[in-house]
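Worked example 3. Consider a protein that binds guanosine-5'-diphosphate.
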Amino acid sequence: MLTSVVGINWGDEGKGRMVDLLSREQDIVCRYQGGNNAGHTVVNPLGKFILNLLPSGILRSDVVNVMGNGMVIDLAHLCGEIEKLRKAGIEISPKHLKISDKAAICMPYHVAQDCLEEERLKDAKYGSTRRGIAPIYGDKYLKKALRMGDLLQPDALAEELKHIMAWKNLTITGVYGAKAFDYEEMLRWLKTYGDPLKDYICDTGEYLEDAVKQGKNIMFEAQLGALRDIDFGIYPYTSSSSTVAAYGPIGAGIPGHSVDRVIGIMKAYSTCVGEGPFTAEMFGEEAENLRKAGGEYGAATGRPRRVGGFDVVASRYGVRVQGATELALTKLDILSSLEKIPVVVSYDIHGKTTKSFPMGKALTDAKPNIEYFDGWGTDISGCRHINELPENARKYVKWIEEAVGCPITYISVGAEREEIIRV
Ligand code: GDP
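Given these inputs, the predicted complex is written out as structure tokens:
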């Protein structure tokens, strides 16, 4: 069975928490896109972990974790992440972690280019996390990227790096007027952080193909949500990769297969990190209260997240582009402190009311039509069955389910592994 766990909204929906829970039924968990630009927070009996690059299944010793070809990998960051987990007593070995030979390497000059470009843009910046993600994906498509498999062929790698750097330094010095990167230094960086990873590098596609034949359960874990997808998201305020479920098998290495089950992770309210249109956004005290209650600060960057009520228009669109077959509604417990719960039911764009998610200028100009639900005013984090939820909470969940047109099969009422209602 192939399962995708994907974000329905702008990211930070609690995917890490759901993958951690769902990975119990999985043999293999794969990351298939993105780099260390976002973080998954997982809280379980072993402690609290922020994972940027490693798949969330890494916290279970009986799950094999795959970092697929669709990813971009900052070697130094990955080494640091592995080291941190080892210190916390988690064993990581090539039996339990496999890195695609086709994943692209995010180099220090990509990080520098990302920062230089954000500084050049000043107020018009896209809100990049400055981890080099857009430059490395750009180079991948320009066919000027190094890949993980190149680390296994050091002579060819050294030669290729020379050509790539001659070209890259033209941009660094000519476009941005910054100091050129030193070839020897980059070679040393590749050796220092690449050598410890060599034993993990393999053809993950071949490995997964065999696993499919053996009837193994494989899960694809997305980073970021539908609205950050490079094609379907709020372009250009998107990530640089495909975050949609359909890309899972491609980015993991088995493009001939399709996903059987798509679990969309959807938050009970809206949050958004960084720049770009965010129609549901609330401001002032109302926003600050929700932000504090939900602990809405970026896992990778610590940036305060923008917050708002649940957005039916954006979420219905997210459910559609993800092809979600079911939904997990997360952080319902956070709304317990609200007397009135705002929801965005439609948008007004230039005098017209719509429920279709717009793009570009129309999205920027969209104004939310907000309705309020009565709150339930009690702590629900101890509820383990839908019937234990207060009536108003049940009404809220039922209404959302109908509004987005997809069954809600999980309701998360806390960050801990077991704080979940299976509907
Ligand atoms: P991800 O990138 O989608 O995994 O999301 P993040 O890790 O950025 O944000 C999710 C945060 O909310 C983490 O701190 C989780 O531990 C926490 N979380 C997830 N689900 C719930 C929930 O149902 N209730 C509460 N209170 N916290 C949750």
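Take a moment to read the result before moving on. The pocket of guanosine-5'-diphosphate is lined by residues 7, 11-17, 38-41, 43, 299, 330-331, 333-334, 412-415 (CB under 6 Å). The longest strand covers residues 340-349.
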